[in-house]
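Extended Data, panel c. Modelled sequence:
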Amino acid sequence: MIDIILGGLAAVCLVASLVPLLPFGHGLVRSFDFGRLQVIGVSASVIIVAVLFGSLTPPLIAAVIMAGVASAIQLVYVVRFTPLWPVQTASFAGDSDAVPMISVLACNVKQGNRDYQRVIDLVRDTEPDIAVFMETDQAWADALRPCLSGYRERIEQPQQDSYGMILASRFPLAAHEVQFLLNEEVPSIFCLVELPGGRRVRLIALHPEPPLPNRDTLGRDAEILIVAKKARGENLPVIVTGDLNDVAWSRTTRRFLRISGLLDPRQGRGMFNSFDARYWFLRWPLDHIFHSHHFELVSLARQRFVGSDHFPMFYRLALTGTDHNDPPPEPSSDDIAEADEAIKVEASRDRPPAGTDWE
């Protein structure tokens, strides 16, 4: 019996590891990008149980091999988000008074969450220079307004469909705009932040659609790739942050890094799993910050539970202007072609975004 159980679990793990290799931008395929840590955990359990309690029968050996192959495939993707991998973003070791600093709090509040005080307390405790809130309806905008009153600039785009956004900045904004890149119901915020000393930074906050198993992921992927192209063409230092509804190791996020040229400060440091905050066994990194080579990392931390299904993320970056970072590879011709095709297809469609009826 143990042979059958372990063989079945190993087979499921192997299938779950092979499905994401398929070159299809459909939610049924791309959803398998998310649970890589869970597959590693189950595969490792199969191997341990087989070695400790099983006998070396052919079915059990096959189960161990399948589990080993599944673990190896998954580790190829996740190992770069462990201390075993070289850091991509250099750690700042200079004088904090000598270079401009910028701190960012990114928080998906979950629209149906009404525990406003937890989020307010977090803002007061972390005192970010830039605070970005996602899934904010009018009730959230009203609740957050008093605690954001000390911020110099506020951009509010409350919506009732789980795509509302709010951005608050202690620094002046030389320019700011709410853009609807591909869908008139999915906003992004573009702004030009002026740091002390006059240096300017392009900051983009986005929250694209989540993947669903019954539809393709072009809405999400194309929006992420549009931002990648915009970042690549930007001469100023760039920060991109938000809940991308995509994991750090996915095909789309890796392509985003290649096209944009931006860096992921988690590489070589940790996964910083921000979702699902309610279940410890179902977590992966969905909330991100990416930045251009102009920055070095001062600190990066997942914040405490605030009643949402996401943990907030807090980042502090130093605008050093020097480049001690490890840049991503250059995009291939296929990267550019597939990005252009995804954007073209999604731009030609008129459909409601996914997840508007979840709350």
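The longest strand covers residues 101-108. This feature is highlighted in the accompanying rendering.
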